[in-house]
Amino acid sequence: MPYLLLQTVGLPLVAAVVTGFTRSARRSHWPGWITIATLGYTTLLLCMAAVRVYRGEVLLEQYFIGPEVSLNLLADGLSLPMALLINLICLALAVYSFHYVAHRIELIYGQCTPRVYNLYFRRFFLLYLCFPAGFMGVSFATNLLSVYFFMELLTIIPLYFIMAQFGYSDYITRYKVALMCLFWGVAGATLFLIGIIMGYVQTGSFEMAALPRLAGNPLTLWIAVIILLGLATKLAIIPLHVWMPWVHAEHPTCIAGLLAIYANIAVYVAVRVLILPLRNELTPLVLPLMILAMATMVYGALLTLAQTDIKRFCACSTISQISYSVFGISVMTVWGVTGGMFYFLSHIVGKAILFSTAGILVYHVESRKLNEMGGLWSRMPITGILWFSAALILSALPPASGFVGKWILFVGAFKAFHSSPLGLLIVLAAVLSTILTLVYTFLVGIRIFFGPLKPFALAHPPSDPSLSMSLPLLALAALSLVLGLYPQPLLAMFGKVIGVF
């Protein structure tokens, strides 16, 4: 099929424009249907591409834009499975968003007229479609300026407007937190841009294929540090984590799942831009990065345990969970990077389920406070299954996919540092930190779903959500189970790229 990769990037933007022009005198859900149809089609395209890549092909589409700027799209064993899984999550959350967004509009703007309702419903899905376009661009682009454009402009700006208009809290707080998201995003983007411009000055090209030319250059380490600082703001590595609890917690829940992808995708960018082409130059950064990742794991887990708000609970857990992927790629061995990338994909699936389940609880219980929830299993068994499915994935218990990712990255770390006392101590601390994940995910789940019904829940009798909200999440849970039981196809595709660096 011609322009296969370009379609996956461009069609969501075309659909966003079409969505912007849909009009109806009555309440219309056409923007949502357009979004679902578009993402269903691009997912089908990616499945077709995945079959070809699994058989050993590498897909390359080249589109010239201007001097030193191109839209070259590369689908290989690393970029393609990541793009496919991200697109599936975007599709699942689009279906989930249907009723959720309608509820948010009514909650924020009251019983508004059909014209006002359609305006906000249309605006939400117009902005929503920017995310899959941006994620596909980051996955496939080989030009660093294109990566910058897709990672920053197509995600930061929609995040701002969606949070400001559909977020939680009052009007003023929503805009304050949206500005915080924008400022931190711009700060990280600026550092990333400075780093890639410095690299361009040394190599004369913005193409990733030119990055190995930096080997042996005395400025290479500084360029890497600046790029890593820019990416670390998205990865919420301490002390650059302060935006995460606010921004993640205040976004609409369906967007919080996409925000987890936005934060995590910086792991892929680090692998593609720095580790694969310049691993030998980055050796001095291995231990510092591992220490920062391990510290963030523990700090994020303890911060999560202290939360009493269910959305802030999920937000703080993201700080801890991203750091496992960072820890894996920091080892800079084939096993470490493979495990880090596998866990990255597992984490975004688990976090999409966890955040969306929290949204269901807020939607039906009408409260974000954990101490007002209890005994909900009898009223919301499907929601309980979803919560514990996410807990299983994030806690890395078999047979969920999280177990495979953490097993590989920790084995890689032990193999790399078995003869280094300091390195071995860091790895052991990281392994033990996984117990904290097990504690906070299952402990809170037990508090929410078991025991007597709390008075607040009795006053607001909850129930399981509609199928349009629960089925997409159950499908993601099943996908995690498949990846956990049968990870070989994904690992085989990773090996074609990571196994040769």
Report on this structure.
- The protein has 501 residues and is an all-alpha fold.
- It has one domain (4-498).
- It is built from 19 helices and four strands.
- The chain has helices at residues 4-20, 30-54, 79-109, 114-128, 130-140, 144-166, 171-203, 220-235, 243-250, 253-278, 286-305, 310-331, 334-365, 381-394, 401-417, 421-449, 455-459, 467-485, 488-498, and strands at 59-61, 64-66, 69-70, 73-75.
- The protein has a two-stranded antiparallel ribbon with strand order 1-4. It has a two-stranded antiparallel sheet with strand order 2-3.
- A hairpin with a 2-residue loop joins strand 2 and strand 3.
- Helix 9 (243-250) packs across helix 12 (310-331).
- The two termini are 31 Å apart.
- The relative contact order is 0.10.
- The model has no long low-confidence stretch (mean pLDDT 89).
Portion of residues within helices: over 70%
Proportion in β-strands: under 5%
Q: Biggest sheet: strands, sense, closure? A: 2 strands, antiparallel
How many whole angstroms does the radius of gyration measure? 22 Å
Short description:
With 501 residues, the protein is an all-alpha fold. The protein has 19 helices and four strands. The relative contact order is 0.10.
Please name the defining characteristics of this protein.
501 residues; mainly alpha; two-stranded antiparallel ribbon; 19 helices; 4 strands; 75% helix
